[in-house]
Each structure stands twice: as C-alpha cells, then as structure tokens.
Amino acid sequence: MQRFFCVLLLLAGLVAAVAGLCAGSIWLYGKATTSDFFATRHIDVAGNVRLSREMVLQYGGLKEGENSLAVSIAEVERKLRATPWVEEVSVKRLLPDRFVIKIKERMPTFWVHKDGVLYYANESGEAIAPVESRNFLSLPTLTVETGAEDDVAYLPRFMKDLHAGSLPVEAGAIASITVSPARGIEIYLEDREMRLSIATDDWAGNLARIGLTLGDLARRHELKNVREVRSVNGSVWVTLSQPMRG
C-alpha cells in the first residue's frame, strides 16, 4: 500500500510539473508575441519584376511593426500564391525582426482578349491578369483562330527562336501575333505594315528559309516594298506592295 501511494504521489508530481511547464510556455509565448523586441523592422523582397514591394506586402498581408512570431509563414505564402502574378514563393523568418520573401513571377509575353477584357498572357497564351494602368506594359496582341489550338504549342518555341535571333525581327516591333490553321504563326509588323507567317509543319526549315529571305531582301534594300512573306511547304512566298525596280 505504501508503495502504491509513493507511485501515486510521483505521478501527481509529474502531472503538476508538466502542467506548470505548459503554463510557463504559454506565458512565455504570450509575452514573446507581444514584445517589441520581436517587432518586424525589415522585410526584404527579391525576384519581383511586375509587382512592387508594396504590392507584394499587401498581397501577402505582411507589414512592418507586426510581431514576427505572430506571423504565419504558411499563410503569407498561401496568399501570395493565390495572386495571379506569383508562380513560386518562399518566405523566411530571421529572428528577431526580419523576413525575406523570394518570388518568381509569371512573365507576360502577350495581350489576349478574354470575355471582353484585355489580359496579360504568358508565352503559351494563358491569361495571367487584366491589363491595368499601374503595371502597364505594351505587348503584342495574340489571337488564336478556331482550328489552330494545337499550334499554340509552337508559341514558346517561336519566342525562344525570336530572342535567339533566328528571325531578323525585333520583338518590340511586333504589333500582333495570330495562330492560324492556314498560315501557322503569323506576325504583323506595324511600322513596316508587313506580315510574316511560318507554317508549323516543318518549323525549323520554314523558320530558316524565311530568315534567309528577309536577310536577302534587307541587303538589297527591298524590304520597304514587301507586304507579306510566307514560309510554307519548303518554299517562301513574297507579296509586294508595289513592283520592285531592277
């Protein structure tokens, strides 16, 4: 019986100790989450291009002066991922008073019309967010004609080849891009009033041929007379706006 009471007293002591430890931990946590020592004083933002630092903090619900221990990192990341511009995000807490936010944005390549609204779209033509004055960027307007949905897959390749110099055209000179079942990828150069189209059946070959043709026309100073250049079925067709001399 005496042994039983000893064990009972030991268990009671352990329970009291654990309860005291829990109460102490709760008290310490409460003090820490209200202490000025842990007030957020520095928030570093990296990787933002279209989004300003203020927009990142607003979307994430994070602000200076807030107790850093009271901030849920998972919640900040969730809010930022829910915004249309953020593709990837990581948030780190550096005690006592700093946060580091690193984001990867979805980069716009085109404008697209969707339900009567003008949107920024990525290189695959997928809408990102509506075009607004506070983050305005002029981009080519993308149109996908009925029946050309499968050729949309060539858009990222076209943009990669364009930036690699495979086509002697400045990206900023392109006013619009049309994905057409009949013409493939068609671009319109507004300053020259010229259309260039590349069929997708032999993409590399058609791209190389139209590039050589444009280079040859430029060397002969005849581009000003060209209205359309079309590369398809192993041939390049040039349509003139007026007859070329000599």
TrEMBL record:
GO terms for biological process: cell septum assembly. Residues 38-106 form the POTRA domain. Keywords: Cell cycle, Cell division, Cell membrane, Membrane, Transmembrane, Transmembrane helix. Transmembrane segments: none annotated. One of its GO terms (cellular component) is membrane. InterPro entries: FtsQ, POTRA, POTRA_FtsQ_type. It is found in: Membrane. Signal peptide: none annotated. This is POTRA domain protein, FtsQ-type. It comes from Desulfovibrio piger ATCC 29098.
